[in-house]
Task: structure prediction
Amino acid sequence: MSLFVEDKLSVFLIMTVIIGGGAAFLAGRNLASRWRPAWMPAAYMIPLGLALRFFHYALFDGHLLSVHYFITDTAVLIAAALLGYRLTIVGQMVNQYPWLFERSGPLSWRSKAPS
Result:
């Protein structure tokens, strides 16, 4: 047992990062497409973290009631959800208001200079 990985690194990468992170990324994109506030993706990841902890328990004999690994899994899910949220919000701001904003990076926009 290590600080982040319960039993095997491959199980953590596949279950938490790829499957859980992918679901979290899509959930963040969906919440952003409906113009929800930025705290909602983080709040929605708590039940997903509980479900992911159950899958670790049921499929790989992980610890079901481990607060430490729940926090670790949920932190990865929140990061993926907020990444999907921010990427979508930036795209919406730039595409819906092209006369006001321009993209200044993958996660930010800025006001256009007056011409």
